[in-house]
From TrEMBL:
Coiled-coil spans in chain: none
Domain of life: Archaea
Organism this protein belongs to: Natronorubrum tibetense GA33
PROSITE patterns: FLAVODOXIN_LIKE (PS50902)
UniProt xrefs under Gene3D superfamilies: 3.40.50.360
A Pfam family reported for this protein in Swiss-Prot or TrEMBL: Flavodoxin_5
Ranges of residues in domain Flavodoxin-like: 4-145
Name of the molecule in the record: Protoporphyrinogen oxidase
One Gene Ontology term from the biological process aspect of the record: heme biosynthetic process
GO molecular function, one term: menaquinone-dependent protoporphyrinogen oxidase activity
Amino acid sequence: MTRVLVAFGSSEGQTATIAERVGDILESEGHEPVLVHLKHPPEGLDVAAYDGVIVGASIHAGSHQGYVTEFVRENLEGLNRQPSAFFSVSLTAAHADPAEREPARELLEGFLEETGWEPDATLTVAGAIKYSEYGLVKRFVMRRIARKASGDTDTSRDYEYTDWDEVEAFALEFSSQLR
Ligand SMILES: Cc1cc2nc3c(=O)[nH]c(=O)nc-3n(C[C@H](O)[C@H](O)[C@H](O)COP(=O)(O)O)c2cc1C
């Protein structure tokens, strides 16, 4: 059985939910997924102990979580040696207009350039707005971002934009490369 590390950063939980879905798909394909939140990685986490690695991170104020960048930098050699994939979660990826989604792709490419990582597959995927879970400042910031990206500014409810078919296709494609 192939062991796959699904390591992620998540500030409000949507990337964690996506990582769980990726894990479920890998499991249904006969692999053994191991999910790790990189904010609290287990001691001695070693990518060499796995047959493949998928990393996920979300974008806040134009950057992915710093602790994910750090993880990729520290494990660069191992990541570039084995099957690996990266998915980036953002609100920019929720734009209906492909041209408006481009900055999400640019941030993903910038992350890879900055770290030197060359994953086999990448995905930019739309996240969520969880107004009900934000404090006052975050709600204000998010409402401004949402006005531009999705137009969903009713702070009395939450919104999920993630395209689960896209997530499933990404996980299945990676799974097929592990055989
Ligand atoms: C304070 C804040 C800042 C954000 N900044 C950006 C941003 O600069 N660009 C973007 O595309 N999305 C931005 N987002 C949207 C998040 O990427 C989106 O909500 C995502 O689902 C968060 O994933 P997480 O729940 O795993 O942290 C921001 C969200 C918050 C709450």
